[in-house]
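Continuing the series of single-chain predictions for the mutant panel. This is the parent chain; the variants come on the following pages.
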Amino acid sequence: MVLGTLGVFGQYDLQALQFSQNIYQSDARSTAVGNAIGAVGANYFSSVINPAGLAFFRRGEFLISTAFNGINTTSSYLGNQDKSVRNQLSIPSIAFVFPTINKINGKEVTEGWVSNTFAFGLNRTNSFLGRSYYAGKNTKSSILDYYVESAEGRAVSQLPNVTWLAYETYLINPVGGNSYESAMGTADSSYNVTQAKSFASRGAAYDMNFAFAGNYSNMIYFGAKVGIPFIDNVTTFSFNEVNKNPGSNYLASEYESESDISAVGFNAGIGVIIKPVKFLRIGGSIITPTFLRVNESYYEQISSELDTMSIEPESIEGKFNFNATTPFKATASVAIIAGKNGFISLDYEYLDYSTAILSSDDYPFSYENKNITDYYTAVNNIRVGGEYKIGIFAFRGGYALYESPYQEQFKPEKGDRSYKVYSLGLGLREKAYYVDLTWQRFMTNEFEIPYILSSVEVDPATKEMTGTNLIMTVGFRF
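Parent structure:
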């Protein structure tokens, strides 16, 4: 329940998960095969999964991708269901690849160092596109109860930001001894409040890679990369409550918030692919934890409506800087290559979400880091895909399953944040250029609790999200 409380107040442990969980949307070819590209090679997205795959390039290449991204969200809260849609255009990848083929007396070598490859560019590793809305009638509690519990035992000067805003707008009032009561008072014998929450998010995570790979005797392929990941994410939401009890002093309130997060960091990775026989490739890679420096600008406002007075909204804005470390990733891959007719590939990815860490000079993050350790777990992600070629055309398909990050005993029945990803693609390949088109569909679900009370169980909202991405990649060989 603690980890699901994203409804009204930002939870940094959930942000750590957001930084760590990648649903890749890169170039059209790798996306079409479920991003199961770890042992296939000759694709720039290898720099994210296994940089050794870059050693399979034989010609220089420039590529750029464009995409249409859409997400549909169905939210359920207190017996009501609402739907929301959001779309955008994006550039999920752009890259240059420069292979060098070693020759002796004008003839390509076949033993020793056959070739080496340098590549750099961008890959999109996650999208934060989203929009949702839910509303319902609550007969058990009010957001004012949360403000009272948050303020209890604190002097006014010690109140957290949001609670202080509630105090300044007379939603809670002191009754002596650092105790407070809500604007409802004790006159309302029962709850009858209509609550509504709207949420919107945009932005993405990218990994800018500089990678090098080498081919030894056309049997062993090595690779290494240095990544500079960066994140841009803007979220806005509001939580509105209207009191339907007649004669109450408390009529309505609204909490509004905007958060603008930008982050830049560092990671590195190494990988190897072995080709014991012509048709089989076996790969493995390790990507270090990503070390992020996060800068957040935030704005919060509360407005209230009471029958006894007219109240101006109160607001707070500020900045907060902190560090986030995401888990390391290990990937094992296998691919069966059917000559020029295509391939079938499988990637297994391991990472442990419970090892993510938050830190700051201004805030200890002990509560959030304990939540991460106690509630998150290690996962085993699977990606599988294939390609079949007929002449200059290629037909592709893929599937990926990203497990829930929650430990089994804390996994919600609905909203476990696991992902299922399906993809289909078509490619046209000529000697000097290629064009790839891909359709990708992902499905996931989340839950959130608007606020937590010690005395009353607050009903959660659940969200079912379906995303559709259409990606086109154009590449030129030189």
